[in-house]
Amino acid sequence: MAEVLVLVEINPAAGGPRKTTLEALTAARALGEPAAVVIGAPGTAAGGRDALAEYGAAKVYVAESDDVDAYLVAPKAEVLAQLVGEKSPAAVVVPSSPEGKEIAGRLAIKTGSGFLTDVTEINPDGTATQVAFAGATIVHSQVTVGTPIYTLRGNSVTPEPAPGAATEETVQFTLSDAAKQTRVVDRVVEQKSNRPELTEASIVVSGGRGVASAENFSVIEGLADSLGAAVGASRAAVDSGFYPHSFQVGQTGKTVSPQLYIAVGISGAIQHRAGMQTSKTIVAVNKDPEAPIFELADFGVVGDLNTVVPAATEQIAARK
Amino acid sequence: MNIVVLVKQVPDSGSERKLDPSDNTVARATADNVINEMDEYAIEEALTVKEAHGGEVTVLTVGPDTATDAIRKALSMGADKAVHVSDPAIHGACAPQTSAIIAAALAQLEYDLVLCGAESTDGQVSVMPALLSERLGIPQLSGARKLTVDGSTATIERQTDGGYWAVEAQLPAIVSTWDTINEPRYPSFKGIMAAKKKPVETKSLADLGIDPGTVGLATATSKVVDFAGRPPKGEGVKVPDEGDGAEKLVGFLAAQKIV
pTM of this prediction? Predict the structure, then answer.
């Protein structure tokens, strides 16, 4: 059976592979036998092997070096290109983070291949589904040259366990000078949060201009915490300084696709829709009955978020 | 400090955007075209760097003849001159091919810094700095929310989930900018008038030494097989809050087995 390389994204806090990696391993099975590729500082692979085996990795290629973490993007692309040369895989699947997309792009140039970003589904014939124009258009695309490279959008595929041998193989490599041009000097965490990662969360509660102040975002956070959800914000809320940009959902922010998306005080401009339209279930709370968000919502409450949301939070807490 | 800003004309994300069913490419001819909004931040950043370090800001765009509108916008903000790569053979080019065209155009320019927006609102592939870094052998400093140029070194704050990475490289380098990096200036009346007189050089693929047979839809490394509109969502339920809004909301979540 043909081998499909899957780049592993490690969650630095937990030490194991991110959910996006398990999704990629699941999606890769449409094309062949997944082989996980761990590229990172020495010790990176140690914590992830069990999860990779559980989700079907027949092999785990381990490429570890301090240099990989010291430089941006290019080292990982170089190691992956070496593996593509050595293993001649049927395809390469990479989780679709900003870094993942950049790795895929560099790999495409290095291997003379085509690549497809933010795919939501990979089919056995190699075609993939993409969502274009703020979710308005569903596209089927295909790589026509070289080794197909896909980046898989988070939360698009449900991870399904399938036992794999996860046989480890160490990858010997020497990075070129070209891969060591952009140095990562510091990694700074500004917002520590116990909430789930926005793009991985199965529930997202987002606030918009209607929340009216930074302080009042506690209303959004309260509902999010009662549901174990991530917090998001519309561009209007971010531009008004209510919430940090890294939580922005929409065209110039994150694209999320959770099981449940709750939009609070968000009108639903196309800018915002672009980032959340593919959510499975959408709930909206807005005082304007004409707000376009209601066109998308499976369930909408026309009312004041300051009364509806805290009351809902209390009732959800009471049900536990 | 010579700076090149990559600018793309895109269909307005606020208008209805379509693919052309005849060849599955973005319908640009019939679209309400504007400068990619993210590029305005790159232009602003280029002008700021120029104001601090001197030099010249050149706008580089690849696109059909109508893309001159995006070029004029950039020039009216204060860029000095422009290069417009336009050739019918480019139609339908994929990202790797487009990066080859931009790389060839950059090779004919002198630059210390290349700036571009972190994504285009049409394709949202968001990897042009990585592709150009790979092709030109210059470092990529992508996803910047802050840029500092000091002598021959550029440092950015690369926006990440919950924070940033401080990332540095030697010039020449390619930097992409998020909309958190600055507040783009509005073109002044004087700027708009001056833009009309600024030089715009048009180049064909032949001028760049690129064989037209290697770019465009026929030889693209990926293609759209088919497309369809998103199936309309079933009519949702909308209820007024009559003191029972929260109860109804939680009832819905309970029916969905979420709570």
Answer: 0.94
